[in-house]
Amino acid sequence: MEDHAVIAQTSPFYRELKKGRAYFWCTCGRSQKQPFCDGSHKGTTFEPQKFVAEEDGQEVLFCGCKLTKTGPFCDGSHNNIEGAYKLDNPESALNKAIPIAQREGAFTNLDGGCFVFSPEFADLKTVGTLSCCTVVDGAVAAHYQSQFYLRLKKGQSPIITFGDDDAVVFVASGEGTAAIDDQQYALSPGTSLLVVAGEALQFDAAPVEGCVIFVSVCSASASIGFAANALGNSAAAHKVADVDRCVRVDQDLRQAMGERYFQMLVVKPGGGIPAAQFIGEIPTSKAVPHKHLYEETLIVLSGTGFMWTDTKKAAVKGGDVIFLPRKQIHSLECSGPESLYVVGVIMPGDNPTINYY
Ligand code: FES
């Protein structure tokens, strides 16, 4: 009896399903009707795996490589099959015909609502030591998340709240502390801090120039609120263990994805909307254009490159933010000699390695 699965395809199969219908995912890889069973597993140790769709139009990425640990769904395992993570040539005739989009204010708009934000051209609102602006929200094609750019001067910031939404803070540069109600957290570049709905937050930036912080909020209609009162002692502040709340970039915790690397930072903040934050390293390369089922914001920490969509591309550099809508075909190229380092927030989802074509 054959006991090894065959790789049917080194990427997942995208399918839209019908509510209540049973689908039988091929686990042996021998079916000619991928990703579904056609009986070819006879004489092997494999059986098809049944999946019943929960809603009409449910979008599923069925594993094609048969190496997933979360069958029938793709879990990104295909990226580590030798030669499966396909690269593209930015100098091909097709790619050379794609023009560079023009920046308008702080935004360079690409296809399908994708854009690159360059904070040095943004109008910031200043409240005390804090200057900030909205980068991503429902007004710019986001459905699941908002993101705010914060620049801090030395000293205590105003007290900030994000209403009924969970938020994830990422320190891009600068040092200091953050107080969440009565708890204090040291901040340095690469610190990620979870702020749960209902909590109040106050920064105290050290006398270092250029303290830059990004805050991602789990709602496309979020806004930054300023509280007049001193920090309280909210019940929310005690619901999250420090080990889950405050995470730091650690090279030892990174995982490979093809020739790229990533480290998960915060996963599913507050247990609410599935969301995840990660840091990734992209070596000099351009991936073949692909899509994700999640919406994503990418903070470019360092390096240079281009964000490509169907008909346009935009230059990116350290400090920029990229917003990528669900299902938008794209490729983020690292064009410089140094790797591109990015911090991504994906919603809905908790696995940034799941890509399809
Ligand atoms: S196609 Fe098998 S894990 Fe993605």
What features would you highlight for this structure?
nine-stranded antiparallel β-sheet, globular, seven-stranded antiparallel β-sheet, mainly beta, Jelly Rolls, binds FE2/S2 (inorganic) cluster, 3 domains, 357 residues
Walk me through this protein's architecture.
With 357 residues, the chain is mainly β. The protein has 3 domains: 1-84, no CATH class; 93-104 and 250-347, Jelly Rolls (Sandwich), CATH 2.60.120; 122-248, Sandwich (Jelly Rolls), CATH 2.60.120. The chain is 2% helix and 39% strand. The protein has helices spanning 93-96, 242-245, and strands at 13-17, 22-25, 49-52, 58-62, 103-104, 107-109, 115-117, 125-127, 130-136, 146-152, 155-156, 159-161, 167-173, 176-180, 183-187, 191-195, 200-205, 211-217, 225-227, 246-248, 255-257, 260-267, 276-282, 295-302, 304-308, 313-317, 321-324, 331-334, 340-347. The strands form 6 sheets. Strands 5-6-7-27-24-29-23-22-21 form a 9-stranded antiparallel beta sheet, with no helix packed on it. Strands 8-9-10-18-13-16-20 form a 7-stranded antiparallel beta sheet. Strands 11, 12, 14, 15, 17 and 19 form a 6-stranded antiparallel beta sheet that branches. A hairpin with a 2-residue loop joins strand 14 and strand 15. It starts with 12 loop residues before the first strand and ends in a 10-residue tail after the last strand. The model has no long low-confidence stretch (mean pLDDT 92).
Topology at a glance:
Elements: E1 13-17, E2 22-25, E3 49-52, E4 58-62, H1 93-96, E5 103-104, E6 107-109, E7 115-117, E8 125-127, E9 130-136, E10 146-152, E11 155-156, E12 159-161, E13 167-173, E14 176-180, E15 183-187, E16 191-195, E17 200-205, E18 211-217, E19 225-227, H2 242-245, E20 246-248, E21 255-257, E22 260-267, E23 276-282, E24 295-302, E25 304-308, E26 313-317, E27 321-324, E28 331-334, E29 340-347
This protein binds FE2/S2 (inorganic) cluster.
